[in-house]
Each structure stands twice: as C-alpha cells, then as structure tokens.
Task: structure prediction
Amino acid sequence: VINLDSAAAAPIHPKSFEYFDEVKETYFNSSSLHHGGAQALELLNLSRDLFYSILNAKKTFDLVFTSSATESNNLVIQGLELKPGDEVLYYPGCHPSMVAPLNVLKANGILCIPYETKSGVITQSSFEHVSHKTKLILISHLNNQSGVLQDIEGLCRFIKSSSSAHIHIDASQSFTKHEIDLQKIQCDSLTLSSHKIGALRGVSTLFAKKHSIQPILLGGGHEGGLRSSTVNVQLIYVFAKLSEFLLSEITESFVQVESLNHYFRNQISDYAKFLFPKDTCSPYILTVAIDKLESQDLIKELSDNNIYVSSTSACSSNRPKDSVAFQSLGIDDKYFKNIIRFSLNSSMNQDDMKLACKTLNKILGPL
Ligand SMILES: Cc1ncc(COP(=O)(O)O)c(C=O)c1O
Result:
C-alpha cells in the first residue's frame, strides 16, 4: 500500500515498536505506591522531561498528557472557563476539534468570532477584531486540509503586542516536520498528537501556561489534577522517544519530502489544480482539485489500486460542514466535489510517487 493519507494516520514508525519493547514490563500505575508504581512514575517523569527539552519549554508551562489532540483542544477551550461576554477568535477552516467545542461556549453566552485569511494564510489583519474582550485565539500551525503553514512565531508576537488573550496553537500536523520552540513562540498552550508522527495512537500532549486551565475530567487527580485517568505511561514514553528521534532527522526528512512533493506536483500538473500557493504550504500536504472524477470516486478507484488518499469531503453535498470549511479556506465552490488531499511522509520514496502517478494516469485516462 502507498499511504498518501498520512495526515489522517501516519504509518507506525518501526522505532515505536522498539521503544515499546524497552518498557513493555512497565505497565504499572504511576500512582501506585509499590516499586512497580515508582518505576512507572520514573518513566513518566523521564518522558515529561524529554518533551520539555525537545520543545525548549520553560516550567512556566504545565505538560498534561491526554488521549488525543481532540481531547487536548477541548481541554483548553472548555478548561479556560470563559464567561458570558468574553470573546473567542477562531478560524472555521481549522480541524473540527477546534471548532465544534465552540458551540458549548456559544450556548453559554460567549461570542465566537471567525477570522479571515488570505488564501488560507493567517495575517495580522486576521486579528482586526481583537479587543479587551478577546480571551482566546485559536490557531492551527499546519492546516490539515489546506497544508498551509502559519508563521506562528510572528503571529503570536503581533497578538501579544496589544492583547493578553490566551493563544492556543494546534500543532498536531506540524510537530516533528517543522520547528516548534516554545521559547520563540509566545503562545499559552499547544497541542501535539502521537499518531500524526508515527508513534502509537492514544496519546497527546497539551502544554498549557500554569494555572491557565481547569480540568474537564474529574476523578483521581492525575496529571497535577488537570486530567484524571490512569496515565498511559508506556505509550507516552514511545511518543517522547520517537519525537526526539524524528527531531534529530527533521532537516533530512524535510528535504526528502520536499523533493517528493516537487516531483509529484510536476507529474500531476496537467490535470490537477493546486488549490493553495506552493510557497505558503508545507511539502507534507498537497491539496488539489481533479475535475475528471468526483473525489469519492477517485478515492475508491485509488484505494482499489492500493493507493490511499483522502478528501475532507466524502461528498460535500452530504456533509455541509465540509463546505463551510472549504469556503473559509477560500476554495471556489466549483471544486468542492473534486478535492483530493495527498499527504506525504519521509518513509516514502520516489518509486512510491512514480507508482502513484502511473495509477492516477491509468484511472484518469487520456486528458
Ligand atoms: C490539525 C488537527 N488537529 C486535531 C486533530 C485530531 O487528532 P486526534 O485524532 O488525535 O484527536 C487532527 C486529526 O486529523 C488534526 O489534523
């Protein structure tokens, strides 16, 4: 199988199994008082320290381990305990885990104001509605649908020059692909997700400025009271170790994926309309419209040939929410039913891309 859908689920990196093997006996509960519990706690502390180190995060941040990026994003949005009259700025083209929880806020009298972008790029003018009432600003570092990569360092600096609003960054898609340094980025919280990098699914991290959020899961008081639930110590270790490993190769991986992206773009340019300018996008995600077949049919044909891709719209007429997201990404309505997202990863090589192009040509036939 050629997985050109790694933004949905990256292939599990072989090292993930090696790291799991190292700790497979350390299944104990990190809260238990016996020696096994102490071992698990030691592993958890080691993993936590590793995350602080690779993100260059100061101890002004808490690091909360959760089960998914969805949970981390919800924890911030609900855990800030905003009050009626407070305002939130968000981008409707973000992942639903950043947009859907706003419905709860809206029902509680909090004003949620969408901000605009220029062809998916967030600019300073996106924040013209920032006021003293703005308490939360939501930004996705690498947009999972468009592939547009935001200058989060510059945007946070700009926002913080005139506002004390909490800035939350969803970096689920960008982590280990693009640099993230929490001493350079003036955000207040940041989400990462294990399965987007090829670690084992079921773990996510939320860095959040100390005392900024309240828990949404109550129980045994794990994670400093911020997230009750027995801590998934072994998978957290795998996530931390794989993150460290991938970051040690970040430049080589980027160069590799950039070259695959370049090759692929050239090969498909006769029939694919590139929906976002190349210089604003990460090479890891390429979103196009192919008008010869509706996306759902092309996905199926490719899948029958062992090539996996996605469209965020299985059928946009059946999923009006996707249409809203596409609209806010600035995509013309006429493309909605033909959008295909190719997402690349560094375990692929040029032969994979060649085969993908050959199969596309075979399915689409003569132009
Ligand atoms: C940008 C972004 N945020 C959040 C999520 C949700 O991730 P999870 O499946 O870990 O909840 C995704 C998954 O597609 C994503 O792409």
Q: What stands out?
A: Residues 68-70, 95, 97, 140, 144, 170, 172-173, 193, 204 surround pyridoxal-5'-phosphate (CB under 6 Å). The two ends are 26 Å apart (CA to CA). The chain is about 35% helix and 15% strand.
